[in-house]
Please model this.
Amino acid sequence: MTTTLLSLFAVFLFFLVIFYIAKTIELSSIAKNGLKNDYVKSTKVNAYLAMFFYIVGMIILVMTTISLAPRMLPESASVHGVEMDKMFDVTLWVTGLAFLLTQTLLFFFVYFYRYNEDRKAYFFPHSNLLEMIWTIVPAVVLVALVFKGIGVWHNVFDFQQLDGKDPIVFEVTGKQFAWVLRYPGADGKLGPREITHENINEFNAKYSLPNELGIVWTDKASQDDIYPNDIYLVKDRPVLVKLGALDVIHSFYLPHFRVKMDCVPGMPTQFMFTPMYTTEEFKERLKNKKFWKNIDPKTGEPRWKGFKFELACAELCGKSHFGMQKNVVVVEQEEYDAWLAKQKPFYKTVVKKAMDRVDNQ
Amino acid sequence: MSTDLTHGHDDHGHHHEDTWLTKYIFSQDHKMIAKQFLITGIIWAFIGGLLSLFFRMQLAWPNETFPILETLLGKWAEGGQISNDFYYSLVTMHGTILVFFVLTAGLSGTFSNLLIPLQIGARDMASPLMNMLSYWFFFAAGVVMFSSFFVQTGPASGGWTAYPPLNGIRDISINIGSGLGFDLWIASMSLFIVSSLLGGLNYVATIINLRTKGMTMTRLPLLIWALLFTAVLGILSFPALLSAAVLLEFDRILDTSFFLNNIVIGGDLLAYKGGSPVLFQHLFWFLGHPEVYIIIFPAMGIVSEILSVNAKKPIFGYKAMIMSIGSITVVGFFVWAHHMFVSGMNPNLGIVFIIFTLLIAIPSSIKVFNWLTTLWRGNLKLTPPMMFAIGFISFFIFGGITGIFLGNAPVDLPLHDTYFVVAHFHVVMGVSAFFGMWAGVYHWFPKMYGRFMNDTLAYIHFWGSLIGGYLVFVPMHFLTGVPRRYYSFEQFTTFDIFQDVNVIITLGAFLVFATQIVFLINFFYSIFKGRKMTSDNLNPWGANTLEWTTPVERIHGNWSGDIPQVYRWPYDYSVNGNEINPQTKPLEEGEEEH
Model:
């Protein structure tokens, strides 16, 4: 308590001192020059400060970039993400150049054209040529970015690319605060869903077993579906993920794969992508990278060893929005098949028993 | 022109005696209403800023406890740590307060009211009564919003964007803030929209009809053009938000299904059928995007005036400036869905919004180059408002440039709803709009109070804010993949690697906040004890515009005699051998009007 009071008092004193210094400067200026301030002296001081800020600021900006850039998300682990990252880089170069140019002009003008009583400002109200230049140059650059962007965007959502590619099709449903994963069983087909009062509420009431997804359990295709804990994917095999949500909007976000799509209650969405590396391969790629070879203080091991692909929620969905984590594992086809074979259909382990119990009474 | 009407108002100069109540509280004088907007805005800025410190503390030190938080916040910070429920309330209210109460009402409300009549040469607004109502609706909105902090289930916590179904179902098991707190949020926003519409209609009517003799549209200061377009944007877009808010409340209390469909909660299907959550997003962003121009236009206008005055140079490309702000106004209505590239709307629709969004960057860059050219070969007096105007340009460049990333859908997709977005919009419409606002406050403080603010404190305020602003938002850009609105990152190995960066950002936020205390001290002290503006110093910055022709005493009706007549545009600086050529100065023999 005393420390709190003391520190509050110190803060108060700090502001008081600043205030009195400022007030004294003002009073002495009034005593010297009267109630008008011509700002000649402060112009000089602030022009020097501005130049100093520009130089030091640019140095710090470069240093920050060098130290933080290695920590940003690693290279894309999906095919379409590589294109997106390229677009990001191009945009960064173009805008970085514009940033450097305009900030430099700004601070140099402030410094070099600071008030000087011998100089007269140059009356220069407009110039069609100059204005044409800085309309056309940005326009050309932006049009180029637009064209490139539309091309990449179109490819990301061109689902016809999947024709004949045998994608892994699975379903992810967001709810507060978990992801429900559903993979097709041996038949390769996801069982049908019917979002009806009958199929959900009455089923729940009758069997004391929630059927939130509205699965039609009498359908054979539903009976071998599996509900795993982790997302398993196969390297180089396209994925089509069917997205939905039960209660509020969630967003299916795989940062390393540059995948993000909202899961909206009552409106199906989907996303497709192709993983390029298995998890183990990706770790190998990180092994010698700057930030990743450092020791992680939490585990005592190099960071790349603890690396994993993760699924996160990217749309505010309530108080535990920050906890909707799932692991994503990319493997080779054989390992995937082995994993799939180990999973037990939810129908057999839970649903059938609950239904039999009630139906046989 | 409408000069007969304005001159017919001359009796306003000898206004009937005001009582204390009609002078300071229910005033119909635009200058007093401006001050009311400003001071209310400052109070809200203080509250909104304080909220951000609370959640920044959580982000920087997620495992520490601060007993003082429990003392201040009670059950919302039990054990000295902000609860996750309250964390989401804090970010929601911070956003709502800053976007609407501070940077819309506080910025446009203050400067539209103060400067439209003074700069166009009018005795007051077209409807002083409507103007007064505009403030009092804003005040009522504030009271309702503030009261939501004290309801049992806490204030709204579903994000300032208020997306359903999170905010569309009145069930605190889904979201604790979606109880009474959110009803109050909707009520407050509805009152706020009424305020904004009353104000906006008044501003447009005044600018169109009450210009003094000779004040043609092409002789208007750029600030007035900016305020005109701001008002137009508000009038055309706020009704969309009002309709969205009302329909949302219907869903909440009348069980309609405008925005809800097939909701399953607790294992049961609810009765909502056929609505669309994405429709709400369209309506919201139909306001929400123009809203960022509503925020930034007044700042742009203020900066244009202040640069020109202090550089003693005409603003470069006056007509290009008007055209660019006008084209932003028009195109600004066709870019809203760039907030929704991954909302589940048809991806092909996204293509239209990529085109329009990047298109709108062209007029923005024209404005930047024109400001820079205004400085070129000027004779710059680096007064406090001038420094803030320069800071505005610096931040506007910074924030505008990151917009190019986010407007381009394939680049946006990985960045959407991450800290890159948070950094982008805070820089471009938070920090730069604030710099514009401060520039305006320092520049026109003598017009409001007949005194100056302390210059040394003003420079400290400037440098603290500039350094603090960059300190907060430069590092934040490097959290490119880290999702926003996360109470803690500990569940994710991918995101839990930025602890030290978050500490730096939070320290930056504290620096900015401390600097604002310097501003507050300066502002309130100077109202009563600041350096006096004297009658031989009526035009302290050496400006051409009309507001500096009024007397020191801020009389109702503005000019004691006739309203001055205008003969030229406001930017005749450093021409005809004179540093300034006020708008009231007739053209000289043989002089051509610009």
Residues 79-112 of chain A form the longest helix (34 residues). Chain A touches chain B through 128 residues (CB under 8 Å). The mean pLDDT of chain A is 95.
